[in-house]
Amino acid sequence: MFAGTGSDVGKSILAAAFCRIFLQDGYHPAPFKAQNMALNSYATPEGLEIGRAQAVQSEAAGIPCHTDMNPLLLKPQSDHTSQVVLNGKPIGTRDAYDYWRRDEGPEPLQHVDFRQEVCQAFDRLAANYNPIVLEGAGSISELNLRDTDLVNLPMAQHAKADVILVGDIDRGGVFASVYGSIALQSPEDRQRIKGIIINKFRGDLRLFEKGRRMLEDICEVPVLGVVPYYKDIHIEEEDSVSLEQKRRQLAEGKVNVAVVLLRHISNFTDFDTLERDPRVNLFYTNNTSDLQQADIIILPGTKATLDDLLELRRNGCAQAIQQAHRNGKMVVGICGGYQMLGLTVDDPDGLEGSITRLPGLALLPIHTTITTEKTTKQVTFQFDGQNCQGYEIHQGVSDTDEPILFGEHCIGTYIHGFLDNPAVINRLLSDYVDTDQVETLDPQAFKEEQYDKLAAHVRKHVDMERLYQILTDD
How far apart are CA 87 and CA 472, in angstroms? Predict the structure, then answer.
């Protein structure tokens, strides 16, 4: 298990790296995270929903993703509530306070034994794969949540997992965070922590040699590696924290693509392939001036369509998008963004909150109703004569049977991964650049190359011989 001193220390990326390393070394690994909180999700081949990070890790492991890799997914709908997805299917919405107490709450959640569910999922996975690469969540030292913790040391106990503690040196305070995380564990759990990895190091590694020895002395746990920060390896991110680094500005000589920065943005990995295209300058913004000056505007997915649509009207982005469209700019809507581009969005049962109806931006002739039934499936579609792939995850029905709806310089679709397809990208850029002169990258081949680069990077800086010894000592 890769557990962390906090959130965003690099657990997901290291888990993906070791999934690929174990695959390269002849093993049959699989990823596992008992409970995940994320808006970035993915549809399995069976048409069920898991966190995107585990889908990425399964790709690194060379196997199809499955709900047993992430049996419990929490999708925040507001500051206080989340949709609960169990074994790939939504079972209701729960207030955070009630969820963590678990002894109270609305049907059907109050009678679900979540610990049993996640342990059974792990057991099924462990019967078919070896090793299992577990990922913890947040910090392992949240003592107030220990009794209800499903994903960190209690899960490691069930799995009989060796725990590698990951600390982020880039944020500072790594000695205190690593030592404190270990010191606050029970004696039994301290014994389970077999190694430390220091992540996101910048500068000359030789400068940390003394620090490495000091950390081993005070923690009495070996430091297995110090992994440098990298910029030239591209692995899909799960946390929207990374979007703060992508709020770039307009650039001359490229096609400027503005992704509208929504408060509840989901599945922002939809734009990774487009962002890497050398012809494109892609950035996230809710600045109305930038939106009007961009060549292409994309409204992304959201977990709260009506709330984000209302906010777009309040902050002026809705009007800016409509004006840009009138000026001939291309507007693309994906999933929740597609719903916003229609005439109306209705939520008669209040599934998303207190707002039951809003007018859309009226760029596409559709009406959408938010429904209790959730669509999750992988899809294939034709675009400009090319076979394309994607997936759908949405809670709403629009009154059209078209998988992709075209308007006047406007495109809407429920398909995530829509922009991972070269045919779609070339059509989108065709009004701005000569698409015949550029060979677009195969997204899957690019991903495989990145997993191999990540594995090589981690191998170089982690004592693999010692890590394998830890795994085989039991």
Answer: 31
The residue among 213, 244, 245, 235 whose CA lies nearest residue 226 is: 213
SS3 322: helix
Task: Using alpha carbons, select from 309, 335, 316, 319 the residue that is nearest to residue 411.
Answer: 335
Of 269, 342, 327, 265, the C-alpha closest to 294 is: 327
Helices (H), 233-355: 272-276, 288-293, 305-315, 317-326, 336-340
Q: Measure the CA–CA gap between 167 and 48, rounded to whole angstroms.
A: 33
Q: What is the pLDDT of residue 241?
A: 53
pLDDT band at 94 (very low <50, low <70, confident <90, very high): confident
Beta bridge partners of 92: 84
Tokens 């703060």 found at: 244
pLDDT digit string, tens, across residues 340-374: 999 999 999 888 888 999 999 999 999 999 998 89
Pairing assessment for the beta strands 296-299 and 255-260 based on DSSP bridges: parallel
- Adjacent-strand bridge partners of 391: 378, 416
Under 8 Å between Cβ of 295 and 257: yes
Nearest Cα residue to 429 out of 332, 287, 317 = 332
pLDDT band at 401 (very low <50, low <70, confident <90, very high): confident
Query: What is the spatial distance between Cα 71 and Cα 26, in angstroms, rounded to a whole number?
Result: 27
In degrees, rounded to 5, the angle at the alpha carbon of residue 262 between the alpha carbons of residues 258 and 397 is 105
Judge whether 165 and 5 are in contact, CB under 8 Å: yes
Active site residues: 335, 416
Q: Which runs of E-coded beta strand occur in 81-203?
A: 81-86, 89-95, 132-134, 163-168, 193-201
As to burial, measured by CB atoms within 10 angstroms (0-12 exposed, 13-18 middle, 19+ buried), residue 186 is exposed
SS3 455: helix
CA distance 238 to 56: 9
CA distance to 108, 334, 388, 419, per residue, from 415 (Å): 30, 7, 11, 9
